[in-house]
Amino acid sequence: MRKNLVSKNSVDSVEILHGIYRKTLAYNKNMMLCHFNLIKGSQIPLHSHKEHQIGYVLKGKLKFITENGEFIAKEGDSYVFDSNEKHGAIILEDTDVIDVFSPAREDYK
Length: 109
Known about the structure:
Blueprint: E1 14-17, E2 20-27, E3 32-38, E4 43-47, E5 52-59, E6 61-66, E7 69-74, E8 78-81, E9 87-91, E10 95-102
Antiparallel strand pairs: 1-2, 2-3, 3-10, 4-9, 5-8, 5-10, 6-7, 6-9
């Protein structure tokens, strides 16, 4: 487990896809907090994972795609994806989001 306090400025960004940057912040085995910087024009392909995901758009705008349709999320909006729910995104503006995963994602540690 990581220490109790994690500063965003102390964590290196990891480019997980072209134009998609992640900083893994505080986490334990039950939850994980991540900051994502998403560059306009980049895309996250349709995917799923066992972890539940809930997020908040700090700035920018993106279009989420799911098997049940699509929706636009912009600054001030929040969203949720259940375990194994397929989702992806098209980044419409330079965007920053905060995501919480439960349980913590092993691949993001």
